[in-house]
Structure formats: C-alpha cells, structure tokens
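A quick aside before the break. I want you to see a complete sequence-to-structure record at least once, exactly as it would be stored in a machine-readable document. Don't worry about memorizing anything.
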Amino acid sequence: MTLLKKIISYIYPIKIAKHPSERSGSLEVTLVNGKLVIDSKNANYSYGSLQQVLKKALLQIDEKKLQSLSSILILGVAGGSVIKTLRDDFNITAKITGIEIDQKVITLANTYFKLNKVANIELVIIDAFKYVSTTKNTYDLIIIDLFNDAKMPQELFKNNFWRNTHNILTNNGIVVFNSIITSTLNIERNEQLATRLNTLFSSNKRLKTHTINELFILEK
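That is the input. The structure line, written in tokens, reads:
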C-alpha cells in the first residue's frame, strides 16, 4: 500500500478488493482515512465504526477484571477487529476462541489484517448458535456481534440462545452484546429482551452509541 493511496483515502475511499460471499453477499476491503476496513453492502464488518462501538463497551468493564480474564469467546469474528482491540488497546493476553460461520470473511481477515498471526487464538468455522448449544467450554467474557449484512439473526432474541450463553459463562463472567436499533419495532424488541435478561443476569447495563447501536453489558 503506497503512501499516495493512504493520503488519497482521506479524501475519498479507495476500494482494494471485492469478494463474493454466499453468507454475507459482497464483501469489500476499502482504504478509508489511511486504514483498511471490511464492509458488506449495508454494514461495516470490521475496523470501521464497529470497532469503536465494541471498544466503548469494553471501556465500561473494570480494568482489573479485564486483565484477570483467562478465556474469551467471540461470536461473530468477521475481520477480527475486536480481537485486535483486546490485544492492542487493552493488552489482554487471554485465550480467545473466535466463532465465525463465513470462511470467506476469515480469509479476508487473514490476508489483509494478518488475523492468523495473532497469538493465542482459535478460530472455529461453525454456526454460533450451534456452538453455544454444544460446547463444553466456559468463558469469562463472551462478545456477541452477529450480523448478516445489516440484519440481526432472530435467534439472538430467543430464550434458548440466552440460556445457552448463560450456561457457558463462568461465575461473575461478562457478556457484551451488540444490537442495532433502526425502528420502533427494534426498540420494543430490545425492551422485551432486556426484561428477559434481567431474570438471567445479576447486572444488565445498556449503552447507546453511534446512533443505531445499543450495547448490553451483562454480568452473571
């Protein structure tokens, strides 16, 4: 990547690559403000606004608790920006298990962001809902960031998924859940979810950011 391209990218985005994906539609790697990002047709997948959204959620967690983590589960890896945030911005060295259903986006992450060079991570290509219902592992922190383009799977709002998630969370463990609100129906959906989560978790903090994102920060 040349210095000239980086400079031009501050004026307008430069498309670096475009790849079709059966799961996510068209995926584009674009140079924006000197940095590479991955976008689907209607949403940022990694290293753009999404990275800042999840970083704000992590900043809400006690620093000592973050540093004491020994196991982290990420549902929805995409380009791996939250993994880089955990490693680079918070200096967290805990084992990270990343779950991603789309092999194509992992290929892009490895090619353009060297995700496969990050230490102490395991990437598993599997449906996240299947994983949480079958794994025997438990985790201190679970980050849920599951989208298909700009749409959220309906399974995210079902009781069974949250019971499974609660079951694989260690005592006093934390869940960060990123949701999108773009309509009155979405607001009502999240209110109903919050009521159900209050019966499962001892703490349920909600944080609105970047206009359409609402984050749930839950503690067991």
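Two observations worth writing down. The helical segments are 3-8, 49-58, 63-67, 81-89, 103-113, 128-134, 159-167, 184-200. The chain has eight helices and eleven strands. We'll return to this after the break.
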